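Input.
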Amino acid sequence: MIDYWQLLLLGAIAGFTIFLGLPVAVLQNLSPKKKGFLNAFALGILVFLIIDVFSHGWETASTAATNASAGKGSIENAVIDLAALFGGIAIGLLGLVFYETKLMTKSFPQILSLDNLKEGDDHLHKLFHEANAYKLAMMIAIGIGAHNFSEGLAIGQSYVAGEIGLAIILIIGFGAHNTTEGFGIAGPLTGILKKPNAKFLAKVGLIGGGPTFVGTMLGSLWISDVAYILFLSMAGGALVYVSMLMYNTGRRQTTNNILMIGIFVGLCAGFITDLIVTLGGA
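Output.
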């Protein structure tokens, strides 16, 4: 039996294992093929997370709708759950569109597009690439942070429901998973000329991993299917947007064969780490 403060400590550990994957960002002198593969591997991890969060959110919402249709549940609850699902997707997906167009462009002005750069403009090309690499890493951290918040909610709500064993298993599984998520954030930063400093890595680590702790704390206060569905779908919407950006970047970096192999390996890594939770009976 663990007490409440031990739960919060373990929730924090589960989130901050994301820092174990971030040192990949400081790797230098990578060939284009290796860098393309690493980014594709990170994309594969994000694709797995999309599958994972939407499957859990849809399962809860569709069950409420099925029960309402069969007369075993409230129609009002079913409508609210479905609204939370679709509303969360809209917030996560369209919210990042707003964030990029209104906020990120202020921090990372795009001087020229890649299509307008001449072959001799190597310096401008590198500046453009590095600015977008940092922007992409930050957006991945935000998407993963939303996902990790929902994971924290699951940990906290398992605890408050009396499922202590499940809560511990989720902490172990999510902790292992967050290590690979750290790599997903670091992927776009590998091999760039301006090596990311400790301050930036600490910032994206807190954005990506900190919400696991916050979600654990808030989730332990009450049980709410609506909140669970809402934050899962927000995470899924955010990850869809980020994944599309990573795919477009990957197509410019490497061949389609390497891109697909990297995505395949990343998907496998995601399923294998998630298997820890499944084998534990969760």
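The chain has eight helices and no strands.
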